[in-house]
Amino acid sequence: MDLIARISQQFQDSADTKLAAVELLAAPIAAATELMTSALLNGGKILACGNGGSAGDAQHFAAELVGRFERERQELAAISLSTDTSIITAVANDYAFEQIFSKQVRALGHPGDVLLAISTSGNSANVIEAIRAAHDHDMKVVALTGKGGGKIGELLRDDDIHLCVPAKRTARIQEVHLLTIHCLCDGIDCMLLGEDE
Ligand SMILES: O=C(CO)[C@@H](O)[C@H](O)[C@H](O)[C@H](O)COP(=O)(O)O
Ligand SMILES: [Zn+2]
């Protein structure tokens, strides 16, 4: 087995997927940046959720908003719904795993907040329920998906933003999701602080 060749191929595939995605995603990522910045400036917050690697992405995004990305700025309101093991285990145990995010959206979400919903397949039931709860609370949704967008693509409304990575492999989609999250952080900082030199 030629591991070096496999690794080289993965780097190549990741770079190719990112370059194919920028054509489709640059404009909607810019729109998502404006939506999130406007929500934050109006006293709203961003709730983020996802499973597995996407749970890590939700936490990563919240950490960069509450802490910092690349520049010093005011703390920004973001909460990962994938983080509180007591809430997640209680809701999964007492109700259903599908409700672990939606119950938190119903508890914490207000009109004007934004839900960042992350699912590579677009089909995770708990992320779908979170989007339904966000709509019930007059929150807009930014959805990070792949594989054609799945059921989430069908559920989104016209004023939501769908960032669907044009790829089929979960790992490649996740890599573009993380890049997208960093673009959102950079764009929010840029809108709040101005362009850096
Ligand atoms: O990170 C990975 C695979 O790269 C896994 O942990 C992956 O996130 C999990 O299988 C998730 O449950 C997949 O959910 P989704 O992206 O389809 O919503
Ligand atoms: Zn992964």
TrEMBL record:
Binds 1 zinc ion per subunit. Catalyzes the isomerization of sedoheptulose 7-phosphate in D-glycero-D-manno-heptose 7-phosphate. Its EC number is 5.3.1.28. This is Phosphoheptose isomerase. The lineage of its organism: Bacteria, Pseudomonadati, Pseudomonadota, Betaproteobacteria, Rhodocyclales. It is found in: Cytoplasm. The keyword Kinase does not apply. Homotetramer. Transmembrane segments: none annotated. It catalyses: 2 D-sedoheptulose 7-phosphate = D-glycero-alpha-D-manno-heptose 7-phosphate + D-glycero-beta-D-manno-heptose 7-phosphate. NCBIfam families: gmhA (TIGR00441), PRK13936.1 (NF010546). Keywords: Carbohydrate metabolism, Cytoplasm, Isomerase, Metal-binding, Zinc. Residues 36-197 form the SIS domain. GO terms for cellular component: cytoplasm.
